[in-house]
Amino acid sequence: MHHALHQLLACADTVILGKQQQIRLAVCCLLAKGHLLIEDIPGVGKTTLSHTLAHLFGLAYQRIQFTSDILPADIIGSSVFDSQQNSFTFHSGPLFNQMILADEINRATPKAQSALLEAMEERQVTVEGQTYRLPEPFFVIATQNPSYQIGTFPLPESQLDRFLMRIELGYPSRQAERELLMGQPRHSLIKSLPVYLPDEQLAALQHEVSQVHVAPALLDYVLSIIEFTRQSDYPCGLSPRAGLSLLAAAKAWAFMDQRQAVLPEDVQAVLPAVAAHRLLAASHDSAATVAPILQQVAVF
Amino acid sequence: MMDAKAVAPTKLHFDSRGIADNALNSRSLNFLLGSIALITLPHAGHIPPPIFGFFAILLIWRLAGVWYRHWLPNRWLLFLLTILGIVLLIAQHRGVFGRDAGTALFVVALGLKLMEIHSKRDVFLIVYLAFIVAASQFLYEQSILMAGYILLVCAVLLATLITQNATHVQTQAALKTSATIMLQALPMAMVIFVLFPRLEAPRWMWLADDNKALSGLSDVLEPGSISDLSLSDELVFRVRFDGNVPPPVLRYWRGPVYANTDGVHWTKDSNHNQPTQPVDFSGDAFHYTLLMEPQKQNWVFGMDMPESFDTSLHRNDTFQLLSNKRPADRAEYKIVSRPAYNTGPISPTDYRRNLQLPAAATDKQQALVNKLRGFDGRPEQFIQNLLNYFREEKFYYTLSPPLMPDNPIDTFLFETRSGFCSHYATAFVYLLRIAKIPARVVGGYQGGEFNKVGGFLEVRQADAHAWAEVWLENKGWVRFDPTAAIAPERVERGVNVDLQVASGAVNFGPLINESAALNWLKRSRQLWQSIDYNWQRWVINYNGANQMQFLQALGIDGIAALAKWLVGSLIIVTLPLAWWLLKQPKKPADKTLLIYRRFCNKLAKTGAAIRPGEGAKDFAERAKKQCPEMAAQIDQITALFIRLRYQSDARDGDLQRLKTLVGGLVVKKVI
């Protein structure tokens, strides 16, 4: 299974060029059963990344383009009167898919945003008293434009916390961009990709990830990190949920590295993606935000 | 934003090269400077202003240097500053010996050392210097408040050490830890305080530069000498009675006797080395313990008349108690006094001396004496008439009498007729001498305020008093207090210092305006005095002699027994503490980590020091680049360490193998 995972990553690298680290983080996020937030300017491959992942994992994929006039019903679905049966039937919305790309989530009004985010946390939706389970696995990749762009409703802190990771893609390198310009169009490339891990295998992987060993010494390190963020001058320290997320992501990272135990290095690798958006630092540079943690919190 | 925060030092003590840039953690530096400011603050009073100013400038300079590092002096400027410091020391103290010069030396050294903090070692050195400066406060003041202050400051210093040593400890947490450490040390400190043999400095080592101005009665009784004291609520001595407390009218605390006069000044006889004549005592005895505060003279104010006393005291022929202890120290004496006594006959010389007058009596004085003597020539009758004269004529008691520079006796008796105890006592004695009755003025204290909380009597400078003593045939020296005839309240109630200080004058009227607030103030002051009394008595006054006495009472005699007791009680005190500390849930010492640290220290010699935030795997990668020839060993050790520390599948022999591997690692030192 590790082999399949390895192939999957290699394959994704051929589609999104020069972004190995981001792809690994995105897969890590999926394995840790978390949701992913990609923040970057338009056109750097956010959609392509999510589409590729959905395809490679063989997940039912739906893209929801968020606009300022989108309504919760447009996402969740609504009850429609069926004149033949003389009753209301629920027509599920695009949310009922295994992988959702919530494109430009910060263009939507808070009301529409919260409809999605509730579903993310509960993994179920309730419409008119009727509860519907969402499919398993359920993975949301939301993209957002940097909040300095016009016409955006920035996600509130409480909702940012629901995303396991936030990553930035950034511009590709010169070499990667050259290859991109020379190669065939990405969307046709995606269609030709094989499915490496069907969804039942993904569930098995996710289970294995949760079994990765966490030693007390490592817990001490995670706790010191959390304590450090609460005592330093960050606007907001890491929440207990952030601690859980950090550990889950580190487990997935260790698993992807074919290890059965989490090392401090795993925590450090996922820390910028997991912690930066929860610390509410003024800077959008995740690596710079967490740099003091990495430098100052003693591993031993 | 976050980059500006200096890197906190690691918990590990790796090679100092890896830490050098961590020594200047700005938060713990601020902590250090703050605590040093607190420590040196009380010295502001006794260090010469130029030296203290020099130190203050250095401290502020260093504080500014926390933010603007380029402002700090370079080596040459520092050298010049050192020269300046030495010059200041020599100019102010002409050397480094003695208490003041020594303290100043330490303060200057502390200030200069502050300017060069390069490594952790410097920080530690500064903290230890600061501890010495803190201890030197006790050379100047030993009050309970100062002790509390120094203890607090030491807690802050300890907290500085804690922030230096631990990773990102918060201010509050560091203070809490240091307070805990102090509390844990307290029982041991108490045992050592009580049992450790006290070394008494020989007399020649007593610090000569004791410049504290001490007030009190002086050798010469001048018109202003007692009124100066009357507004001072400074404590003179405290008395704890075993049994009954004598009523106020008996509380005459006997001081020097003033027998010679030039009409204005009254002086005491210089030569009092004659043996004391026996005194015939009768009536009730009062047993008491007297705790003298530091004073100018070696006078001890026993209650009239001291019968028996400690061997460190002797009674001269004016019945004044003199101590052979150092007057600037507090001292405790056990005394027995009896208010009823007969001193018996006096020698013809003494008789003559106590009739001495600077000039023949003026007509007015002679007329007054003649008038008062009446038909009956008996001295008792004359004294009675004189007291009645003071009482019935318009004499007033006041602490702010008009000035009488030239002829105070005449001016007082016939013109102003207002004065306080010394005026009455001197005029009284003067008139008696004109009447050929031997008399003299006695100085001392009268009354004292009873501290209900502590059960002792406090006598203050404001209680300073002068009265008269008359030699009567068959009765010896008898005390008469003319002030009591004018203002009996002065004697019966004592001086109300609170009111006096408030109004600037004495108020002997009925104290109807003694409000609740004043009462409360009085009570809290009494409580405080009681605490202070016990502090002086049990802590400050616990000197070699007292310790020996106390230990003998416990049955400890001899150095061997003392050593046994010392060790025994230290064990008794520390065992529960150790047991309690061991009982605390604590992480077992991680042997794996200890061995790994040894490994890191070995690698540090090659120049690859582990960073605080670096994991073993990353460190191994870096170390392998640094010394590729050891790559295999590094990999092996790191893998073992990771398995032992982070994995669930460590085997039994792993720890031993790790130990062997690390032990066998040989590194070449890189210079």
Describe the sheet with the most strands of chain B. 7 strands, antiparallel
Quaternary status: heterodimer
Bulk shape of chain B: elongated
What is the domain total for the residues of chain A? 2
Topology:
The complex is a heterodimer of chains A (300) and B (671).
Chain A: H1 2-15, H2 20-31, E1 36-39, H3 46-57, E2 61-65, H4 72-76, E3 77-82, E4 87-92, E5 99-103, H5 110-122, E6 124-127, E7 130-133, E8 139-144, H6 157-160, E9 165-167, H7 174-182, H8 186-191, H9 199-210, H10 216-231, H11 240-256, H12 264-275, H13 286-296
Parallel strand pairs in A: 1-8, 1-9, 2-5, 5-8
Antiparallel strand pairs in A: 3-4, 6-7
Helix pairs in contact in A: 1-3, 2-11, 9-11, 10-11, 11-12, 12-13
Chain B: H1 26-40, H2 49-67, H3 75-93, H4 99-114, H5 120-136, H6 144-165, H7 171-195, E1 220-221, H8 225-229, E2 235-242, E3 252-261, E4 266-268, E5 280-282, E6 286-292, E7 299-300, E8 302-303, E9 306-309, E10 313-315, E11 321-323, E12 331-337, E13 340-342, H9 348-353, H10 363-373, H11 379-392, E14 396-397, H12 408-416, E15 418-419, H13 421-434, E16 439-446, E17 449-451, E18 456-460, E19 464-472, E20 476-480, H14 482-486, H15 488-492, H16 497-503, H17 516-540, H18 544-553, H19 559-583, H20 591-604, H21 616-626, H22 631-646, H23 654-664
Parallel strand pairs in B: 14-15
Antiparallel strand pairs in B: 1-4, 2-6, 2-18, 3-4, 3-8, 3-16, 5-13, 6-12, 7-11, 9-12, 10-11, 16-19, 17-18, 19-20
Helix pairs in contact in B: 1-2, 1-5, 1-6, 2-4, 3-4, 4-5, 5-6, 6-7, 7-19, 12-13, 20-22, 20-23, 21-22, 22-23
